[in-house]
Amino acid sequence: MPEDAMADVAIVGAGPAGLCLAVELAAMGLTVSVVDRAPYTALAEPGDDGREIALTHTSRRQLAWAGIWQRIDERSAAPIREARLYNGDGDTPQAMTLAGAERSPSQTIGQLVPNRVIRRAAFEAALADSRITLITGQGVSALETSPSARILRLEDGRRLAARLVVAADGRMSATRRMAGLPAHLEDTGRKVLVCRMAHERPHSELTWSWFGYERALALLPLNGQTSSVVMTLTPAEAERLESLDVDSFSATVSGFYHHCLGDMQRVGEVHSYPLWVGYAQRLVAERLALIGDAAIGLHPATAHGFNVGLASVHRLSREISMAHRRGRDIGSPAVLSAYERAHRRAIRPLWLASQAIVSLYGDARPPARVLRQAALGLASQVGPLRWGLEHYLLRDAR
Ligand SMILES: Cc1cc2nc3c(=O)[nH]c(=O)nc-3n(C[C@H](O)[C@H](O)[C@H](O)COP(=O)(O)OP(=O)(O)OC[C@H]3O[C@@H](n4cnc5c(N)ncnc54)[C@H](O)[C@@H]3O)c2cc1C
To answer: What does the pLDDT read at residue 388?
Structure first.
């Protein structure tokens, strides 16, 4: 690439959100450069990270429209028929059913797809489009401004100019910081452990979330008699579990889940994530926009991080498309503030719900128990944890 290479849009971060946006923009005829600090092979053949992404039907349609879903082997997707949520510990926790508003003809409310499968399909789609240039193994060291462009300075000294820069570099986004956009970042003091477990009884294609007083647990139904367990734990408890051999780990986790699916046996690696959540107070700056986790990094218990990321992709590409069709500047303040207004309206209630979860569980004192029951009851009625939230997420975007 020559110095001062120029693209219509430069995206920092070739994660699922950044790649989906690249593919949607290229389909409009725009030239797009995507920069990621990860090496090429890690992006082309992502390893298993333990994450099973619960996709709503709206998200699946968006991936299909971008030509990404067609690259996913449908055998790697597992249907979800219903989502159930339990509050409290013991054998009789209180349950709420969070069925989706939209069911497919097969009566499912969504599908679980491994994160690495989505990432690989999105990478292949980007690679197949000659309007997209992928720059891998490179971070961004500085962000500069000229009257008609934003300029990314890459770590190897190259410069890349674009009419619009999009930060899709995850919840700890360095690009967001370089642009001077403030964000509320919170280390929850918890760790998330995820792994696959085989079990004795069928899961009936139900997702289960338990908000216990000491820990939060989820079970995500995969193909066959296998589920993904997602456990939010104190660091000490997470470390204790990670130090166990497979059989002791399996027995302990079966106990956490009250043997609801009989005995469970670990069948994969355990993946561990420190649990940070984040919320950008501004989503745009001069010729720059935040999408995906760089805009909002939700608690995984909401199971909607990527769905919300795809909603940000949809909203931004809609504003860019309208400006492009009318021959207007795609990085103008009008385009960016329309995006910010629409996405901010959608994500603020999600952030408040995510924060309620963070602050209320792990606290076993009676007032917190009462508040949590009220918060989860409200969430089940109106919004963010509800599976029917696809209409909510995109109500002003279609
Ligand atoms: C345990 C767990 C379970 C989850 N389950 C679900 C679920 O069921 N449903 C759901 O919808 N969501 C879920 N999520 C959330 C979902 O995984 C994220 O919302 C999604 O991955 C965010 O995508 P992204 O592209 O915005 O960011 P990321 O996936 O974080 O990608 C960011 C990219 O930017 C690159 N990058 C970072 N910094 C730089 C830099 N300085 N320069 C260049 N490149 C950089 C990285 O290499 C990476 O490729 C879960 C998350 C976790 C942790």
So the answer is: 45
